[in-house]
Amino acid sequence: MKRLESSPLPMQPPTYGNLVTILSIDGGGIRGIIPATILEYLESQLQELDGKEARLADYFDVISGTSTGGLVTAMLTAPDENNRPLYAAKDIKPFYLEHCPNIFPQNGRGGFGSLRNSMKAILGPKYDGKYLHKIVRNKLGDTRLHQTLTNVVIPTFDIKNLQPTIFSTFEAKATPVLDARLCDVCISTSAAPTYLPAHYFKIEDEHGNSREFNLIDGGVAANNPVLVAISQVTKQIFHGNPDFFPIKPLDYGRFLVISIGTGSAKIEQKYTSKMASKWGVFGWLLSGGGSGSASTPLLDVFCQASADMVDLHISGVFQSLHSEQNYLRIQDDSLIGDVSSVDISTKENLKELVETGENLLKKPVSRVNLQTGIFETIENGGTNAEALKRFANLLSEERRLREIKSPLTSKSTKPRPLLF
């Protein structure tokens, strides 16, 4: 069954449909290549249904991302000169392959080189961030949150106020001093402690109101931002946003959620209590954990803990509502060695990350065990690729239903016929 191709129409609000659709992308530095590969496949399935111009932003009410996921979110939702997404999903992987070696330059990786990198990390950020800042500003320009083609939610953390700062299209439209430039948001949510410098900027509205931001990586608060995205939607429902009527604040059974991780090194078990018991400040900040490459245990612990806690919570909620078929978490917890790093941008490692994403599509759908925290294969769940194909059909049908029911589109367009 294939629908006739038609020119894309603006996404109609959930009030005309059955579902609230959310896409979430974890943080993880260069491991953003993994979700980029997954998203390319998902978008290709939507294009098979609705035509080559279909883009992910045409199907999701909210796209949320932390750190590298925040950058992907901005790329998928920022408008180009034709008011279409700046990047198709297939363009994101080439972007990472081209620019990551310059964002994370590899200045020696053994012996003296590793010692020099460790000393640099002690004295300041491992990378100066100049190339990242330049490329992000060049690509995103002065585009602001309120201009995104669908709602976005991107967490950061304010180091001065010691509290999370959530940037969202919802908040930007309501509060001008939160309507930040997308480039500033991306630089901020990617500013991982010890790796990249914190980011400062200030917003002033037309009435003279202003707000300052002193921000670091959103991963320290919400490396898996799906719960933050759901909370933003719940807040809109609670405050009576007509786009979500008649959905109730806790009507999670009507949520359709795809959450994509950037992989983890759980299976490697590179840290032990025996090792950690001897660590001081430097040990918690710089340790290879026996993997042969320096890592930052403190960040690994914080980011993995927040990501897993969110997945445990969301999985529990959807299972309790008997709507687990509406929640898809795609994650690989079997990364080992360099491929589990956030910044080793050698040609060999980037190639392996692409292969990791491609292999993840072939793996069976898994769900976190609420008792052990380990991902376990779902019986008769098929592969991740098959699950994404099913979700693509759901997303396409939801979009089509909204077009039929919405008075904004039903008068000017006819329902797209089906070809059997």
TrEMBL record:
It comes from the Eukaryota. This is Uncharacterized protein.
